[in-house]
Amino acid sequence: MSEVREIVYRLDFRKRNAPDRGPARATVAVPRIARLIALAIHFDSIIRGGRMGSMTDIGRVGHVTRARMSQIMKLLDLAPDIQEHLLFSTFSGLNERSLRPIMRLIDWQPQRECFRRLMAELDCRHAR
Q1: CB-based burial of residue 10 (10 Å sphere; 0-12 exposed, 13-18 middle, 19+ buried)?
Q2: In the chain, what's the furthest Cα-to-Cα distance?
Q3: How many CB atoms within 10 Å of residue 41?
Q4: How far apart, in whole angstroms, are the C-alpha atoms of residue 98 and residue 71?
Q5: pLDDT band at residue 7, thresholds of 50, 70 and 90?
Q6: For residues 71-76, average pLDDT
Q7: b or e along 59-92 (b: 16 or more beta carbons within 10 Å of the residue's beta carbon)?
C-alpha cells in the first residue's frame, strides 16, 4: 500500500527583478494530468467534508459543466498506484482523454495492464 503524501506549493508574488529574490532557480512544470488528479482529490474532500453538496455545486461555483466535472472526478476511479504515478511523474505526455479507456475498466488489474501498454506506446512515440 502506498503512503500518503502531502504536496505543498510556495508561491512567490514578488516582481521578477526584485533585489531580494536571490539566485534564479530552475522550476519543473507540473503536468496538467497531475493537476487534474489533485483537483479531483480536493473536490472529493470538499464533498465528503460536507462543505458542498455535490459535484454540480462545485461546477457551478467554478463555472464548469457537469460533464467536465464528471470527467475530472472519474480520475479517482483509477487504481491508487496509477494515480500516484500520475501525481508524482514529470512526464507530460499523458492527458485525461488518453486515460478514459482505462478509467472505464472497473477492475484495477486490467487498468494497470492497459496503463503499462499506454506508457510503453507513449515512450515509443517520445523516442522517435
Answers
A1: exposed
A2: 55
A3: 16
A4: 12
A5: confident
A6: 95
A7: beeeeeeeeebebbbebebbbeebbbbbbeeeee
Supply the mean pLDDT for the chain: 85
Distance CA 78, CA 128 (A): 29
C-alpha dist (Å) from residue 61 to 51, 54, 57, 96: 13, 11, 6, 22
Candidates 3, 2, 5; CA nearest to 38 is 5
- Sole residue written with cell 472519474: 74
Q: What is the tens place of the pLDDT at every residue in 32-65?
A: 999 999 999 999 999 999 998 888 999 999 899 9
